[in-house]
Design brief:
about 575 residues; alpha/beta; Gyrase A, domain 2; Isoleucyl-tRNA Synthetase, Domain 1; 4-stranded parallel beta sheet
Length: about 575
């Protein structure tokens, strides 16, 4: 049953208040000793013409305990509710075990489609550590929305169009060697791209040459288009190798180029709406009333830009998927760009554009190091993932832990450690890269949560042969057990908060707190020790089973895998 709803019903009846008022006011006290739920009586003072403490005292006397509420106490101007711990533990643990990986899920998204655009690396460029922020956040949000019953599609809006390709094509014709490139595609392409910028500083005419190559690409020049397609074809396998390491798949790899033939319609639609005005030869949508720069739709030379392509992409997605939400997981520096295009779509009268949401994220910083693709200063994501796996393997070996498959464990723990770090705080907060904090088995980290899970599963393996399918949970009531099960029960709230705010860190915080509570429970409530009461043992084993299932599910929503032994 829903214990909170039961309390709301009781307050509504006894205090003769409307349900909405009670629902908005009820809260969780800051300390467990103050009860499980609290209702402030201060808003009733004017209506009842009594002091809040007196109102609380009178209501407490009318609310006798039942099989759900153990007791109700007045404290100052608050009504504090203490639940029947035995029943709460029994019902929560039983439900969690029955629902399994669906624990914390919902059907609220039934019939609604959510699109999540994330990762979106530029083809023919390194898949660097900065891309992981978008990739980690987007993948987690896709999993979270699926857990809430939405039909979710993951979109990889590849950067495969724009003037940079004119530069790359120009560089390839001057310094490229296909045989060399095919041995190490991204590294070799990066070298010629960096060389272009070095040479262009000495000879600015190269920039004009590059613009001409991109113009030829836009016009469909057969030779230039074939070279562009070659760059795209050799890039995707490189990207997919990294996605495979992360356990990520996409429903679409339609990049910017896919919408190149869909932009003329956008220009005409905006022109028909009377939204386009001329500014220095360019066609723009004036947004000065919002005190933001105009949104450029066509440049003075008639070429389209990012805004035109993004509007075309949004229109295509609406027509193709009829989305409820169209989420863009992109770096915070792009906030103005998305504010502009969302406003343009709104002014075009496209009501569906209200479902478009910008989800920004911060930067990845390496102490004493700046990243720049143009100058070749990049940290390859694949290198970081492999190094994390190697470091984890060394830690496992040095700890002397008995692990069935050290390679599998090192991969799951090492990659999980990095994902956890990118999702542990608000997504707009910058990340300072540190191996020590990432791979800390004791602190707030993925290894810490994975170890808690592995320890719980180890207990259950040792209990093989014990039937704990229908235990007497009254035998397991303790402060530690109750705190643990309360944390277990809060999963659905964490998932909803994560979706409402597009913030995976709510899940991260949930699973970390659940693991902490489990460790405390494990250390203070003997389970498999000699002489332990058999019925108590069964109840505690059932709690361990429910909690480890929840840890695995929660980590899964972050894209992190668990291991059975560490």
């Amino acid at each position: 049953m829903d214990f909170k709803e039961h309390i709301i019903d009781k307050i509504t009846q006894v205090a003769e208040l409307d349900r909405e008022t009670v629902e908005k006011s009820i809260e969780v006290p800051p300390e467990e000793s103050m009860g499980d739920f609290a209702f402030p009586c201060f808003p009733l003072a004017k209506v009842m013409r009594k002091a809040p403490p007196l109102i609380a005292k009178e209501l407490a006397e009318k609310m006798s305990g039942d099989d759900v509420i153990d007791r109700v106490e007045a404290a100052g101007g608050y009504l504090n509710f203490f639940l029947n711990r035995g029943r709460f533990i029994a019902e929560t643990v039983t439900a969690a075990r029955e629902q399994g990986e669906r624990w914390g899920s919902s059907d609220m998204g039934g019939g609604k489609t959510v699109l999540v655009e994330y990762s979106s690396p530029n083809i023919a460029k390194p898949f660097h550590i900065g891309h992981l922020f978008s990739t980690a956040v987007g993948n987690s949000l896709a999993r979270i929305y699926k857990h809430l019953g939405y039909n979710v599609l993951s979109l990889n809006h590849l950067g495969d169009w724009g003037t940079q390709f004119g530069k790359l094509i120009c560089a390839y014709y001057k310094w490229g060697d296909r045989e060399v490139i095919e041995k190490d595609p991204i590294n070799e392409i990066l070298k010629v791209y960096v060389r272009f910028h070095e040479e262009a500083e000495k000879d600015p005419s190269l920039e004009d040459e590059a613009r001409d190559y991109f113009k030829r690409l836009e016009e469909g020049d057969e030779e230039v288009t074939a070279l562009w397609q070659y760059f795209r074809d050799i890039s995707l396998p490189e990207f997919k190798r990294v996605y495979d390491m992360l356990g990520i798949t996409f429903d679409s790899y339609n990049g910017e180029a896919f919408y190149s033939d869909k932009m003329d319609e956008v220009v005409e639609l905006l022109r028909e709406k009377g939204l386009l005005t001329e500014s220095d030869g360019a066609q723009v949508v004036d947004l000065s009333d919002l005190n933001i720069p105009p949104c450029i739709i066509l440049k003075s030379d008639g070429a389209t830009i990012y805004a035109t392509r993004d509007i075309a992409a949004a229109l295509y997605r609406h027509r193709t998927y009829d989305f409820y939400k169209n989420i863009y997981v992109v770096g915070t520096p792009q906030a103005l760009h998305f504010k502009q295009i969302f406003e343009v779509m709104k002014r075009a009268g496209w009501e569906w554009s209200e479902g478009c949401e910008f989800v920004g994220f911060g930067l990845v910083k390496f102490p004493g190091r700046a990243m720049s693709t143009r100058h070749g200063d990049v940290v390859f994501l694949e290198d970081v993932l492999r190094e994390s796996v190697e470091k984890t393997r060394d830690i496992i070996k040095s700890n002397g832990n008995a692990v069935d498959d050290i390679d599998d464990a090192a991969k799951k723990i090492g990659i999980g450690a990095i994902l956890y770090t990118f999702l542990k705080n608000s997504r707009e907060k910058d990340i300072i890269f540190s191996w020590d904090s990432m791979l800390d088995f004791e602190g707030e980290s993925a290894p810490y949560c994975q170890y808690g899970y592995a320890r719980g599963r180890s207990i259950l393996r040792r209990a093989d042969g014990i039937d704990y399918s229908s235990p007497d949970f009254s035998k397991a009531v303790s402060d530690e057990a109750y705190s643990l099960v309360k944390q277990l029960a809060s999963f659905s709230d964490a998932v909803k908060d994560a979706a409402d705010k597009n913030e995976p860190f709510y899940i991260n915080r949930y699973v970390t707190n659940l693991t902490k509570a489990f460790n405390k429970f494990y250390n203070t409530n003997p389970i498999m020790k000699e002489g332990a009461d058999e019925e108590t043992r069964k109840a505690r084993l059932a709690i361990v089973d429910a909690v480890t299932r929840a840890i695995r599910t929660a980590l899964g929503l972050l894209g992190i895998e668990t291991v059975e032994s560490m």
